[in-house]
Model the fold of this input.
Amino acid sequence: MRKEWEGFIEGNWTENIDVEEFIHLNYKPYDGDASFLAGATERTKECYDRVQELLVAERKAGGTLKVDASRIMRINAFEPGYIIPGKDIIVGLQTDEPLKRGICPFGGIKMVREEVAEYGEKLPEEIDRMFDYVTTHNDGVFKAYSKEMRQVRHLGFITGLPDAYGRGRIIGDYRRAALYGIDYLIEEKQKDHELIASRHVMNEENIRTAEEVTNQITALKEIKKMAAAYGYDISGPAKDVKEAIQWTYFAYLAGIKEENGAAMSIGRTSTFIDIYAERDLARGTYTEEQIQEFVDDYILKLRVARHLRTNEYNELFGGDPMWITEGIGGVGMDGRHKVTKNSYRVLQTLYNLGPAPEPNLTVLWSKQLPEPFKRFCAQVSIDTDSIQYENDDKMRPSYGEDYSIACCVSAIQMGQQMQFFGARCNLAKILLLGLNGGIDERTGEHVGPQMESVGDGPIDFDEAWRRFNIYLEWLMELYVNIMNIIHFMHDKYDFERSQMAFLNSEVKRLMAFGVAGFSVAADSLSAIKYAKVYPIRDENGVIVDYRTEGEFPKYGNDDDRVDEIAVKISERTIEELRKHPTYRNAVHTLSVLTITSNVMYGKKTGNTPDGRRAGTPFAPGANPMHERDSHGAVASLNSVSKIDWDTCQDGVSNTFSITPAALGKEKEDRTTTLVGLLNGYFDRGAHHLNVNVLNRSLLEDAYDNPEKYPNLTVRVSGYAVRFNALSKNHQKEVIARTFHQHV
Amino acid sequence: MKGRLHSIETFGAVDGPGIRTVFFMQGCPARCLYCHNPDSWGTDAGRDIDIDEVVHWAVRGMPYYGDNGGVTFSGGESLMQGEFLIEAMKALKKEGIGSAIDASGTYVDEFTDKAIETCDLVLLDIKHPDPERFKIITGRDQETLLEIIDIINKHDKHVWVRNVVVPDINDTEEDIEALNEFIKRIKHIDKIELLAYHTMAVEKYGKLGITYRLKGVPPMDGERLEELRKLVKYPDDNQ
Done:
């Protein structure tokens, strides 16, 4: 056994890469409360103040502080950078200065040219010219797309596809760097390569994998070099908690240096790190205050991570997110919860460093989490609006005890799986297209199978449902094929070598499809079924509006009549997707999650039978439509909880805002109530909840007086943002959402 | 059997212990100056609800109740529908769900005794300890309040005392002392809540075309209320 591992319980992990088993054998569940936690040190405060200054400057500069287009972002493209030279204790920045953004052109050079132009910079000629000869992921995709694929894309049936930017959603098991050191990982990759390249049949898959593994080995060597530039030799395992954090962070940093994927989760690091912390506390190597300081500095580094984006991109994914998602808590397969002191320390950063959207702290909730921890989480939610909750009891049976969350709500087994991210299709528009028999309601363009438009009404539900299914069937085939092209090209032209280096060489793949306009589609079908809906046509006979007579049940009120329609929509969607084979045999998954693209999707969708006006934003994710959930919070949550996670294994996102007064009269009561609410919701089998505890008037004031609220953080849709970083349109939509309040 | 319902709140965290499903029943004999639900006064408005529906909504809330949540019947004055309440609470008990009655103390009839006996907790609004001022605030005689307290004590029911504090009406130290004195007659008090008068209902009055009689009275100041809360005294022989 290596000397860095002294004091750890041995197992398979000492012979093979098996971080999960290492954690399982060595972590110590913590049942106590938060009273052991340490506050911020003077050094932490100084670094935090510096970051605050930089954030103010970034906001004043319109959201992006500095752009360096002089070189392509690679692991060692930049010299080392620091927040305050000499003061950083966990080191490493993407570029040589905090908040400075670089360019990642291999996803798409066009996007980079736009980005650079938007910030008044210019690409150096040699980089610009290089792409006369180099194909990017974006070039490749458009070489393969059919006309119809481009059409559904520009009409807004499928939007936000990662065909012009990095796909993200890959989570390297960065803990491997700390546990094993880079040299051992290289050796293992070399063995894998030899095995794969020596197979009897060198088919496409084996050839591709062999090449990929070689690229991963190159990346690992470069990561060692990067660490060396910061004064660290990471060829061997980390020997204490500070090194464990540093090694893990270096491994992650390499990924965000050269990849600008939409969502770049860090995984599930806190309980892993706790094992080192406990050993150091026992040995007297470090004190609680020192360990908290390491954690604070680690989190502060994650808070200054940035990518260069275009305005168009920001319209989809508002608030400049990185989705540095960290899964906290959960339960092991043996029933022991995985809450450790370090789970608390990571949440404590929201007090030591103030509320913030990143990293995207995600509590993996289970009935079995210890009561003091549940209360602490609820308290943090009430105080900071910075964390989200996901149902570990739902995910664990499928993903085991060592999964983490890609982006917002998507479970992935650490080290063994990767995801092909696939944005989302527009369910409301599919319904409208069906009623119009293949004419887009906004442009009059013919698209998809052509048939007579629906009769003059009242529209028959069975007929509407039949049409919805015909167009769903058509679009889902197209959707799978589009995704196959995208990920084929991404692997080919923009392979994430530095992230994949921390995964098994032969990973299992998930293909994550998504839907938007979920509640609008359900309510529209409910209107057709329970009220009388008459089409209104324009001079060309295209249905552009609907007259709806009478009442109909609305999703969000725990009313099975409409909730069953919603459930059926999700089931039909995944059934259709599964009919079509995927690239690299990926497993089809489905999410009901929109990020902030619910605003953009709404913009691209005409009037709907539920009474929603053309251009109005959809509700986010699986949320009921704004203010339609009128029976109180429990009824609203119960409706969402009916959407079965087994149907939507990529996640069912619900963003929930409640006023402090509605939670109770006193602080203690509010905490108790929120714990009860989470217990009840997850007990119903629900998957995800973003929790905001605030008054609408606060957001209205922040809308008018942004400078008064520099740190106001809100959860929007599987992630959090600084409210000020949202566009005015996104802010308006967040303000228009339901706030559950005391009547 | 049918009751008359104003509305349902599936998430009540301020009307009794824990998370509760709150049924706001339609109809109220009182016309309290500061009433924030004037739309719940008339007995004709609202809609019908049967016992099955009450049970349905309450059962849907069960995972949220935890150890001490349940159902609260509020209003309006839910005791105006005492017969319905009794049946509903019996049906809820079969499901293992406890019930609280939020009573204004302005109404008693032949079903009140049985309703109080059937419930698990009473939220009792003490509009004012002084009979004269009780009448000014509610438009009703205080006798009904005293009768209800007798019934509550007879059945050994536990009570959350509530008192809405309004500037210039009952916000003096003497008012709180009078309240302390008055509630000595209640055997089991679990909690005493002073609630701040607010003006959020003014708009509702406008829409309903009802004159708002506390026009110009400001919302109760939070700090002042905190001071008054410190003066609240639980009776010495409270059980």
Notes: The radius of gyration of chain A is 25 Å. The longest helix of chain A spans residues 461-493.
